[in-house]
Amino acid sequence: MPSMLPGAPWLLAHKSMLATHQLRKVSVHGNDYVMWKDAVGDIHALPNACPHMGAMLSEGWCEAAGDSSSRVVCPFHALAFDAQGRTVLPGANKPTRPQMEPLELIVQGDFVWSYGGYAPKLTIPGVLNAIASQYTFMGFTADCSVETDLLSMLLNMHDYNHQNGTHRDLFRIAEVQFHQFVDQGYESHAYYDMPTAPYSLMEKLRRPDLFLLPSTLSAHMENHFPALVIFHGESSLGRVAQCHLFVPEAEHRTRTYILLFGRAKHPAFNLMGRAYLNFGRVVVGQDADILGKLYPNAPQKLRLNNEVGMDWVRKNFEKFSAAEAASKASVSP
Ligand code: FES
Ligand SMILES: [Fe+2]
Question: Which of 41, 254, 282, 322 is a Cys-bridge partner for 153, taking CB atoms 3.0 to 4.6 Å apart?
């Protein structure tokens, strides 16, 4: 079974993650790219291996060219490549033909999507654009590469029983009251409540972000297979849409990060942005830690209640892969 779902769209970045003319290495489907934003805000991505002698272009720098475009300069012998992969060799006065094929990007507002060079098999979910139009962007956090395959990463995200283990320090979840799972194919919705054991006033004064935690965490998770899970939360101060993104960097390396959007009901909400981001960072750190400590081939003999989200992930993984196999079969003679 293919482990990286070629043909699915991946959100490689939110524009706020890219400072103008700063190079960023991104990986998808086992390939590395150098990505950057030019002076007019256009985003480019080239294969990261320099076509001269293979240096990592992302270790070089970016320079503005006269016409508000920009070039990425190799850190080894300083050849400068434009966004089409052309360079001007020393002594020559015109650019070479393209030496690399740029990665195709689909930019919608601040969202930078890519199919990683594969033919699209699934459309890009429009929900992020809808959220961006209704909420304020509060920042990104927890951008990290985890030593795990995409399937394990997604199973963890849709596992409603790991709060008492993986996240016990943070939330003191007393139980998970699962209410409903709405399966709409590659989209789904899960609703559950998690009553928490109370913190003392002393603890809260020491860590004021704990005031953010309601006595019951009510979760509505909106899932768009495979790249996106949105955790909708609401308190008296405001609403948040915490968007978890996933990118298969390689067979056993999966990137994840959070884009946080909020809508204030009370002015104090805006002061809490940092605290919300910090919660997200801690949660992802705890998940990354446990995922790095699993025996991948251990036989799984037990099953808990409410594993319906994980069933949904497995089912879609198989469905997507089967569609893939079928389309391959119809191409071959
Ligand atoms: S390796 Fe990049 S310029 Fe030589
Ligand atoms: Fe988790």
Answer: 254
Which part of the chain has CATH 3.90.380.10?
Answer: 127-296+304-315
Q: Is the CB of 138 under 6 A from ligand 1?
A: no
CA of 249 relative to ligand 1 center, distance in Å: 24
**Ligand in closest contact with the CA of 279:** 2
Distance 11 CA to ligand 2 centre (A): 20
Going from the Cα of 293 to the center of ligand 1, the distance in angstroms, rounded, reads: 39
Count of other CB atoms within 10 angstroms of residue 6 = 18
Report the number of secondary-structure helices (H) and strands (E) in the chain.
6, 16
* Amino acid identity, position 283: V
Determine the 3-state secondary structure of 112 from DSSP.
strand
Give whole-number Cα distances, 80 to 64, 83, 99, 170, 263, in Å.
11, 10, 12, 48, 43
Name residues whose C-beta falls within 8 Å of residue 181's C-beta, 6 or more positions apart in sequence: 188, 189, 190, 191, 308, 309, 312
- Residue 258: both structure tokens together: 């959070």
Chain segment 251-295, per-residue pLDDT in tens: 999 999 999 999 999 888 887 778 888 888 999 999 999 999 998
The per-residue pLDDT for 315 is 97
Q: How far apart are CA 144 and CA 129, in angstroms?
A: 23
| pLDDT, position 322 | 85
Taking residue 74's Cβ as centre, other Cβ atoms within 10 Å add up to 23
- Kindly report the pTM of this predicted structure: 0.92
CATH class of 10-114: mainly beta
What is the CATH topology of the domain spanning 127-296+304-315? Naphthalene 1,2-dioxygenase Alpha Subunit; Chain A, domain 1 (3.90.380)
pLDDT given at position 331:
54
User: How does residue 333 score in pLDDT terms, banded at 50, 70 and 90?
Assistant: very low
For ligand 1, whether the C-beta of 49 sits within 6 Å is: no
Token code pair at residue 126 = 């429009």
User: What confidence tens digit (pLDDT) does each residue in 198-241 have?
Assistant: 777 777 777 766 666 667 778 899 999 999 999 998 877 889 99
